[in-house]
């Protein structure tokens, strides 16, 4: 019986938002979600993700309060391993924010990828360009 190596990733909020919005890259994002749900991919994210996704959807006129609460429920039910803030993650996030001139929020995803020795998958091309030299970032669809 052949065993497949399970891929570990950090899932950026820009990918998760595509699960709920009709936009470019949605199919790739949904395929990744399916792989997470099926256990072929182990996904990590800082718990900040709940707030980032809800906030982004709030500014989409197609989403009501109820829609966002429903999306949050789906996110909770997806097999993502959420990391609570801790000193190591915060310290690394701040260092990376300065190093790459990005927000501490975005840096927390990169930091988590570094700390877990895996790739952060993002759909944010501008962020990807800033942090690709970290060696721990991939653009959605390139994985």
Written overview of the protein:
With 143 residues, this protein is of the alpha/beta class. The protein has one domain (7-139): Rossmann fold. The protein is built from seven helices and five strands. It has helices spanning 13-17, 26-37, 49-58, 65-77, 87-100, 104-115, 125-131; strands at 7-11, 41-46, 80-83, 119-122, 137-139. Strands 3-2-1-4-5 form a five-stranded parallel sheet, sandwiched between helices. The radius of gyration is 15 Å and the shape is globular. It starts with 6 loop residues before the first strand and ends with a strand.
Summarize the structure.
Helix content is 51%, strand content 15%. The chain has 143 residues and is α/β, with parallel strands linked by helices. The chain is globular, with a radius of gyration of 15 Å.
Secondary structure layout plus pairing:
Blueprint: E1 7-11, H1 13-17, H2 26-37, E2 41-46, H3 49-58, H4 65-77, E3 80-83, H5 87-100, H6 104-115, E4 119-122, H7 125-131, E5 137-139
Helix pairs in contact: 3-4, 5-6
Q: What labels describe this entry?
A:
143 residues; 51% helix; single chain; 5 strands; alpha/beta; globular; five-stranded parallel beta sheet; Rossmann fold
Compressed to H and E, one letter per element, the order equals EHHEHHEHHEHE
How many beta-strand segments? 5
Q: Extract low-pLDDT stretches.
A: none
What proportion of the residues is helical, as a percent range? 40-55%
The CATH class label is: Alpha Beta
Query: What oligomeric state do these chains adopt?
Result: single chain
Largest sheet: 5 strands, parallel
Q: State which percent range the strand residues make up.
A: 15-25%
Terminal-residue CA separation: 25 Å
- Mean residue pLDDT: 93
Q: What is the CATH architecture annotation?
A: 3-Layer(aba) Sandwich
Indicate the overall shape.
globular
Number of domains: 1
Total of helices:
7
Query: Would you tell me which CATH topology applies?
Result: Rossmann fold
């Amino acid at each position: 019986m052949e065993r497949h190596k399970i891929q570990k990733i950090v899932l950026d909020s820009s990918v998760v938002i595509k699960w709920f919005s009709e936009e470019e890259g949605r199919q790739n994002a949904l395929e990744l979600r399916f792989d997470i749900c099926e256990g072929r991919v182990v996904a990590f994210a800082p718990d900040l993700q709940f707030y980032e996704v809800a906030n982004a959807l709030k500014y989409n006129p197609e989403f009501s309060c109820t829609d966002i609460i429903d999306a949050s429920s789906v996110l909770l039910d997806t097999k993502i391993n959420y990391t609570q803030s801790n000193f190591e993650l915060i310290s690394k996030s701040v260092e990376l924010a300065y190093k790459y001139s990005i927000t501490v929020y975005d840096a927390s995803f990169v930091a988590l990828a570094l700390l877990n020795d895996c790739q952060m998958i993002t759909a944010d091309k501008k962020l990807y360009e800033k942090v690709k030299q970290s060696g721990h970032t991939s653009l959605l669809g390139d994985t």
